[in-house]
Amino acid sequence: MKATEVPEIAGAYLFEPTPYADERGFFCRTFDADVVRSVGLDPSAFVQDSVSRSARGVLRGLHLRSGAGEAKLVRCSHGRIFDVVVDLRTDSPTYRDRAFFELSDETQATLYIPAGCAHGFQALTETADTSYRIDRPHDPAEDVTIAFDDPELAIPWPLPVTSMSQRDREATSLAEVLQQKES
């Protein structure tokens, strides 16, 4: 497994496993504490694992947490997703930069998203299972959602949106979220 720094988002990493494939299919390590530790992250800091299943065109996000934020490892364990990260850490050299990834079951790559970054994705296949490893317990009172179609972000979502949560449909603009963070 190798770790590659994501140039568009300071402190973000892409962990790419080395699958062993044969006539049965493949096997690969999707988490390696030593590799995580080698880039300065504490592997024992992750306290919660979750999974979501989405149909083609479903959009989830853009989500982040207020307060101390939430760091996470994200992997598409089945299917393919278009994954988006937006750096909203005012002290970051990549503040307001965006990065886009295609995560899939073929590569089993895992994306590390630092606390303070917004995250969202869209399912590209009929079924897409996305796994999350989060560094602190979820507190719904800290949930923040930014409009997926905010013109300032101009995210090139690859498919028409087929479904999203009520929370995501009612999301506020990036400008409003940043204004709330400052007050």
TrEMBL record:
Enzyme Commission designation: 5.1.3.13
Positions of region (Disordered): 164-183
Cellular component per GO, a single term: cytosol
Enzyme class: isomerase
GO molecular function, one term: dTDP-4-dehydrorhamnose 3,5-epimerase activity
An individual GO BP term: dTDP-rhamnose biosynthetic process
Highest taxon of source: Bacteria
TM spans (from-to): none
Matching Pfam families: dTDP_sugar_isom
Catalytic activity: dTDP-4-dehydro-6-deoxy-alpha-D-glucose = dTDP-4-dehydro-beta-L-rhamnose
Keywords per UniProt: Isomerase
Pathway of action: Carbohydrate biosynthesis; dTDP-L-rhamnose biosynthesis
SUPFAM superfamilies: RmlC-like cupins
Active-site residues per Swiss-Prot or TrEMBL entry: H63, Y132
Subunit and partners: Homodimer.
Annotated function: Catalyzes the epimerization of the C3' and C5'positions of dTDP-6-deoxy-D-xylo-4-hexulose, forming dTDP-6-deoxy-L-lyxo-4-hexulose.
Family: Belongs to the dTDP-4-dehydrorhamnose 3,5-epimerase family.
Protein name from the UniProt record: dTDP-4-dehydrorhamnose 3,5-epimerase
Originating species: Streptomyces swartbergensis
